Amino acid sequence: MKQFQVKDSSSDVLDISSNTRTVKAVWSRMNNVDLDNDIIVPEAFTKTLAERGPSAKNMIWSLLDHKADMSHVIGKPSELYVDGDKLVAVTKIVKTAKGEDVIKLYEAGLINQHSIGFSTIQETEAKDTGVRTIKELKLYEGSAVLWGANPETPTLGFKSENKETLSLRLDNLLKAFRNGNFTNETFALIEIQIKRLQAELESESTPTAQALEPKDQTDEQVIKAITQFNNLFKK
Q: Per-residue pLDDT tens for 157-187?
């Protein structure tokens, strides 16, 4: 399984109902080569929606700006389905101060971009064009964003922290995930945070954690944490 990624998708907001606080929006576009030289095929969502979607374990979140904490949760999609080349989500926005702002931002047309957070399960890459075709993925969340997230900086929220701090946070999250007594909803948020932290730590290392030569104790801690993570989420 590949590390946590985000992908800009669409400016389509299909419907907004202020009375029911419901937003219908396109989270992802498929069958087109995007700015990352990737193609997501519709079948990539089949298994993850069947296992994690609203009619299954209901583990997929609607967030703001890919931030997996309670202050940025705006709901969970009640419907999430593939329609042609679109991944469509219907979300009832929670009744919080943040939720009130979100509804107003949608109505004003200020939120018109959405992006998904996911890990790839199966992919292929064309040797002649370098185009990557994503055939299966694990979907964690869809985010409403004021501006499309930069695909080169999927973990922007962690950039101000050093490697040692990130490693310690990852270690604590792993312990909480293994030993904690949380609700399924909180476990799902912890998983997203772990995936993002791993992505940030790996981006600061050489191409693969397995090939990294430890230079100091912090590097050793990073490698250990990433190895524990990979074992924990091994498919």
A: 444 466 777 787 788 778 777 777 767 776 7
Digit-coded pLDDT (tens) for 82-111: 999 999 999 999 998 888 888 888 887 878
* Distance between CA atoms of residues 195 and 232, nearest Å: 11
133 and 73 co-located in one domain: yes
Burial class (CB in 10 A: 0-12, 13-18, 19+), 168: middle
Domain for residue 91, yes or no? yes
107 and 191 together in one domain: no
Please state the domain count of the chain: 2
Has residue 92 been placed in a domain?
yes
Tell me which H or E stretch contains 144.
strand 132-145
Which among 230, 203, 201, 196 has a CA at the least distance from the CA of 72? 196
Q: Which long-range contacts (CB under 8 A, 24 or more apart) does 202-209 make?
A: 202/3, 202/226, 203/155, 204/163
Query: Pairing between strand 113-125 and 5-10?
Result: antiparallel
Reported pTM: 0.71
Amino acid sitting at position 201: L
Q: Do the bridges between strand 132-145 and strand 61-64 make them parallel or antiparallel, or are there none, so unpaired?
A: parallel
Count of Cβ atoms closer than 10 Å to residue 38 Cβ: 18
Instruction: Report yes or no: 13 and 27 within 8 Å, Cβ to Cβ.
Output: no
